[in-house]
Specification:
With 141 residues, the protein is α+β, with helices and mostly antiparallel strands. The chain has one domain: YjbQ-like (Jelly Rolls, Sandwich), CATH 2.60.120. Helix content is 22%, strand content 40%. The protein is built from three helices and eight strands. The strands form two sheets. It has a five-stranded antiparallel sheet with strand order 1-8-3-5-6, covered by helices on one side. The protein has a three-stranded antiparallel sheet with strand order 2-7-4. The longest helix has 13 residues. It is elongated, with a radius of gyration of 16 Å. The N and C termini lie close together (11 Å).
């Protein structure tokens, strides 16, 4: 079974959910050779996360952001404040949402549902570029 592993770097973006499905697929042109497999996506950061969610209505990521902001408010009396008011809430949000996804591959494409997209969920207001490790395992044609 072939394995592919690639690291990509995403540009810095503002706080919120950012659709990155195209960037991931573009980084893996070999996907079309896999008849079955898995893509594992790992984000190498602790103040952003990955999520799989609806990519058709922009109200969905906006509402998700509002809910998560209410769960991990900047007004909570955190001990860890040296990196700014948004840093500790970002760590909480990452712990709640996660830094990796596994997506099935079939017939040369990601087997996402009709309305599903892969999102980078940036939790910091002033973030840096984000690194992802993409690992593909499966059977090729």
């Amino acid at each position: 079974m072939p394995w592919i592993q690639r690291e990509i770097q995403l540009p810095a973006v503002g706080q919120g959910c950012h659709l990155i499905t195209r960037e991931i697929v573009a980084a893996l042109p070999e996907l079309n050779q896999f008849k079955i497999g898995l893509l594992h996506i790992f984000l190498q950061h602790t103040s952003a996360s990955l999520t799989l969610n609806e990519n058709a209505d922009s109200d969905v990521p906006a509402d998700l952001q509002r809910v998560l902001d209410s769960l991990a408010s900047e007004d909570f009396p955190y001990y860890h404040t040296i990196e700014g008011r948004d840093d500790m809430p970002a760590h909480v949000k990452t712990s709640l949402t996660g830094c990796s996804l596994t997506i099935p591959i079939g017939d040369g494409r990601l087997r996402l549902g009709t309305w599903q997209g892969i999102f980078l969920w940036e939790h910091r207001r002033r973030a840096s570029r984000r690194r992802l490790v993409l690992t593909v395992q499966g059977e090729t044609e």
